[in-house]
Amino acid sequence: MKKIIFIVPIIGLILFFACSKDSSKSYEYWNEQVNAKAQELNKLLESIPCTNIEEFEIVQRPYYSYYLVHSSLKNQFEKLNLELAHLQDERNKAAEREGKTFYDAQRLSMPIPNPPVGKVCYNGKATLRFAYDLSLEEIHTELAKRLKELKEFYKDVTCSNPNDWTSNFLRTGCCMEGIAVHKTIRSTEMIEKIELYNRLMENKLRLEKTTCQGGCANMARPVQCRDGKPFVEVYKS
What is the per-residue pLDDT for 106? Predict the structure, then answer.
């Protein structure tokens, strides 16, 4: 019992000095560590040639980062990803200590999701496909499918309290229409689907060389409940 009482303070001192040592390292040091770990992660993911894309799973990590992970690498990927997250956290702390407010602002602003449309084997590598990679014909097919998903996403969720919902925008062409997102029910998934649809529509306009003139609604009113369904009214400010 005496040995245990003696050892615990020693462990505490070791942890204290380890933390103190970490806190003295610069932003540049941690940034190099982050870059090295990210390269190690990418090297792992590319270590298995792609012959069957179904053996690779799309894995999402904060903030809206997407990876293709072979089933045999899942545990190694999770380990390296945790190590990368720790290094990124240390880099953030160092940036704050050094007054790098630009990094603080970047960290606090949430990135806009850019979800992949699918996955393919390309030159022996597992590759994510995004809206910008698709042909016009592929985009038309995807838009019809994705719009159906969006319209049916909350079909089993009744709108009884409008405060449970938040307003969002869905691109219908050059302009936007309103669409509701529940604040607690599969909200992240719904926002990803909206952003994917919007990016598909944006690429459609680009490929068709459509010139938008403006004059569209750019504001959304709070969600209303109508006959048990959420409704969003948009207007021009």
Answer: 53
Q: Which has the closest alpha carbon to 23: 72, 95, 81? A: 95
φ, ψ for residue 160 (rounded to 5)?
-115, -25
- Which CA distances in Å does 12 have to 1, 93, 147? 17, 22, 56
Higher per-residue pLDDT: 21 or 29: 29
**Cis bond upstream, residue 63 (ω within 30):** yes
E-strand spans in the chain? 56-61, 65-70, 118-122, 125-129, 165-171, 176-182, 219-220, 224-226, 229-231, 234-235
Least confident of 22-36, 76-90, 106-120, 167-181: 106-120
Q: CA 205 from chain center: how many Å?
A: 24
